[in-house]
Design a protein that fits this description.
Layout lengths: L7 E5 H12 L7 E5 L1 H6 L2 H8 L5 E4 L2 H9 L6 E3 L7 H6 L3 E4 L2 H13 L5 E6 L14 H10 L3 E7 L11 H22 L4 E3 L3 H6 L7 E4 L10 H5 L5 E6 L2 E5 L4 E2 L5 E2 L4 E6 L17 E4 L2 E6 L7 E4 L10 E5 L2 H10 L4 H6 L6 E5 L1
Parallel strand pairs: 1-19, 2-3, 2-9, 3-4, 4-5, 5-6, 6-7, 7-8
Antiparallel strand pairs: 1-10, 10-18, 11-14, 12-13, 14-17, 15-16, 15-18, 16-17
The protein binds pyridoxal-5'-phosphate.
Length: 367
Amino acid sequence: MNNNHVTVLEIDSEAVLHNLAYFKQKLQPQTKILVVVKAFGYGSEAVEIAKIVQDKVDYFAVAYSYEGILLRDAGIKTPILVLHPQIQNLKDIVKYRLEPNLYNFKIFDAFMQLADEAPLMNYPIHIKFNTGLNRLGFWHTDVPTLLTELKKSNNVKVESIFSHLAASEDPNEQEFTIGQINNFAYIVKQFYEHLGYEPMIHILNTSGIINYPQAQFDMVRLGIGLYGFGNNEQETAQLKNTHTLKSIISQIHLIQPGETVGYNRAFVANQPTRTATIPVGHADGISRRLGNKEGFVIINNQAAPIIGNVCMDMIMVDVTKVDCNEGDEVIIFNHQQHIEYIAHKCETIPYEILTALSQRIKRLVKS
Ligand SMILES: *Cc1c(COP(=O)(O)O)cnc(C)c1O
């Protein structure tokens, strides 16, 4: 099916490469880089992002096995870490040569059994430890049992040991974060002493790369930074915007004082008002919180506030003071500050604004 929608998310490949290079220059020359392309590449297009950076990175990560299969089906050969597999997915993981994160004994035992039955030889697995996020991962007290199990088998090979920081962007949580890093380093030491070989180790996400360069270990995991956000103003200023959301004006109305716009008649004109209707709505990820003049779009370099309630498939904007015609281009956002403004209005973070962009929007890579 060919998506011919006029509402388009442009992915700027040059910006993606700029952002990758920016983070690479923060790394030690030997530090490897994993790029996180979960959730359709943070709402963009995972396969396209992977193709743009595949020659320049060591690993990809996705959340679920299905996301990794999409990459393999598109011909991506780079190793792919599946961050959050389930027992039901393990067969597919092997079939597509994806690399599972094993985070508790239930999934670890299931994978060891599958690896024994197949049988697999030295199949790459990753072991995650919980050091304070309390989301996924083994406890440090599980290390002896894990080592015993791992030493019994040559069906698998631990490719990496990793953990995830809970508050790497927050300077007030520095003490906690350094505690996480130190506990992780202690776990790694025990592993190295008894395993007989040294898997790669990694703990840093984007904000971690920025704030804790001393903890790069063997690899870092770059997510939001690749997509243009450094989680603070100075860093974001060094990055380029990757996601531009555009549409066109479908129709212009001229309404008289007392007339209203949209559902629940939420906007009431108090003067002759020109409105433009744009084919993008809350089903596309434009939050209803942006209605009633909380949000705006850009038409011919002028801001046009969203008036009334955001509909499922449309928004209406006030263009009384904007020189424009039906068919003109509409910029819904095209720089990080606008995305941050939207996130602020929606009481959320840019991650959620980007990943909320629905699959109905056409994706277009700009090189
Ligand atoms: C999503 C994710 C990342 C990337 O985080 P960013 O803040 O986007 O850089 C890294 N590691 C894990 C385990 C993740 O789930």
